[in-house]
Amino acid sequence: MKKIFSAAIVAASLTLASCTLGTTGQTQQTTTDATSAILGGILGNGTLQQTGTSVLGTILGNILGGATTQQSLVGSWTYAGPKLVFESENVLSKIGGQVLSNNLEQKLGTYLEKMGFKAGKSVLTFANDGNCSLTLGSKTLPGTYTYDPNTNKLTLNGMFVTGQLPCTVTVQNGQLLMLFEADKLLTIATAVGSKSSSSIGTLLSSYSGLKLGWAMTR
Fold first, then answer.
1. Which residues of 53-65 are buried (b: 16+ CB within 10 A; e: fewer)?
2. Nearest to 197 by CA among 179, 209, 185, 212
3. Quick one: CA dihedral 130, 188, 150, 215, positive or negative?
4. Burial class (CB in 10 A: 0-12, 13-18, 19+), 23
5. Domain total of the chain
6. Residues 77, 169: one domain?
7. Which of 64, 152, 186, 217 is least enclosed, having the fewest CB within 10 Å?
8. pLDDT tens across 105-139, in order?
9. Element housing 82 (H / E)
C-alpha cells in the first residue's frame, strides 16, 4: 500500500517551496527539487527517496487501487491513528497552505482521542453476518454494516446514529483505512457525546474536499 504522508508535509511541498525560493532570489528549482529540500528539513534525509510518491499517496484515488472485499473486513481492528486524504489534486493545491498552517491531521488525532479513540486500545469488529461493534473506552457501540466493493463504500447502521453513516474504506497490507466526509465525522463526535464536538465542527467546516478518519491494524 502506498504510504500516506501527513497533510502538513504534503502542503509544505506545494506551498512553501515557491515562497522560500522567491524571497531569497535564488534560481527557481523544479517542483521535485523543492519538495525534496522541504521534506529533508522536516523529516530528515531518510525519507527523501519517497518524495516522488508523497503527494500521490495523499490523493484518494491512489489509495483505492487494491481489491477490498467484505471478507477482508471481517475480524477485529485496533485503532492506530488519524488519517487525512485529499479527494483530488485540485483540492490539495487549493487548500494546501491552510492545511499546513493548521496542522489539521495532528489536530484530528487530538479530537479523535477526545472522542475516545486510543491507539492500541479502541477496537472495531466486523462479523460475517453483517453485525459490528466499536469499543471506545468503557463504551461498546453495536451496529450493522453493508459494503459495496465496487465503490469502496462501507455503510454503518445504528452504531453512531439511528440512520446510515457512509464512509470510504480500503484494506491493504493488513491495514484498514476508514475515511469520512467532514460533516460525518462531526456526527460521530456528537453521537459519542464528545465535549469537543462544537470545536471539531468549527475546525472542519473550512475543509471541504477532504476525507478524514483513521487507520486500524489487525
1. ebbebbbbebbbe
2. 185
3. negative
4. exposed
5. 2
6. yes
7. 217
8. 788 899 899 899 999 999 999 999 999 999 999 99
9. strand 75-86
